[in-house]
């Protein structure tokens, strides 16, 4: 059996310790004017809490902002599958990132959970205590490409095939003790997330980021940058 449940893998304590459950806020808009040439393409920026936008069929555009929520314990994933709490802020961020989308008509918006691994890389394996049950999780918001590799790893594990995929470093549990338990995990996560959002806003405005914000944002456990 293969579990294809994405962020809901945090239901299992052995996996939850190595995952941060956050959310991505999304909005679909209809531009009021032609976006010009070259046409709008798929884009993700380099921010830690990244912005991304995608053209859709019919001329509509999807815009999203990552890292805008934080889940509490085993119930965290369900609480992050909802409507966008502040759609006005999301639209403001959209027009800041893509000025040509200013005054667009909002068609729909939603918030969806995303699981980030502490290494920002997905990992796969057999669920401890459940022989023959395999999982893949920790795609960290970048699942389209890695899902192809993940499918090959999971297929190999399920058929007990030993090859380069099933013996790779992705086909094992992450090392270390992982994150602390609640409430330390949630309270600490909120402090770091708030600092990361503040840092992103200041960088977008080309303002100087204060030392306290920089140091707090660097505690982010899912960053390669430390």
From TrEMBL:
The positions making up the signal sequence are none
The record's annotation in Gene3D superfamilies points to:
D-Amino Acid Oxidase, subunit A, domain 2 (3.30.9.10), FAD/NAD(P)-binding domain (3.50.50.60)
Q: Which residues form the FAD dependent oxidoreductase domain?
A: 2-156
Q: Which InterPro entries match?
A: FAD-dep_OxRdtase, FAD/NAD-bd_sf
Transmembrane annotation, as ranges: none
Q: What is this protein called?
A: FAD dependent oxidoreductase
């Amino acid at each position: 059996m293969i579990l294809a449940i994405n962020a809901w893998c945090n239901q299992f304590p052995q996996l939850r310790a190595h995952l941060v459950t956050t959310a991505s806020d999304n909005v679909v808009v209809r531009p009021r004017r032609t976006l010009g040439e070259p046409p709008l393409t798929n884009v993700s920026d380099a921010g830690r809490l990244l912005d991304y936008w995608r053209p859709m069929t019919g001329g509509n555009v999807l815009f999203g902002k990552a890292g805008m929520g934080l889940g509490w314990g085993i119930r965290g994933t369900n609480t992050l599958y909802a409507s966008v709490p502040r759609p006005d802020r999301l639209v403001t961020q959209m027009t800041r990132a893509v000025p040509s989308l200013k005054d667009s008509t909002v068609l729909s918006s939603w918030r969806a959970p995303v699981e980030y691994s502490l290494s920002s890389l997905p990992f796969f394996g057999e669920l401890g205590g459940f022989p023959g049950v395999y999982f893949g999780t920790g795609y960290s918001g970048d699942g389209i490409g890695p899902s192809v590799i993940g499918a090959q790893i999971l297929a190999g594990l399920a058929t007990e095939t030993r090859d380069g995929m099933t013996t790779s470093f992705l086909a094992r549990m992450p090392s270390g003790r992982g994150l602390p338990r609640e409430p330390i995990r949630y309270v600490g996560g909120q402090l770091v997330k708030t600092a990361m959002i503040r840092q992103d806003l200041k960088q977008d405005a080309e303002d100087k980021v204060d030392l306290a914000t920089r140091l707090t944002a660097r505690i982010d456990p899912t960053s390669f940058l430390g």
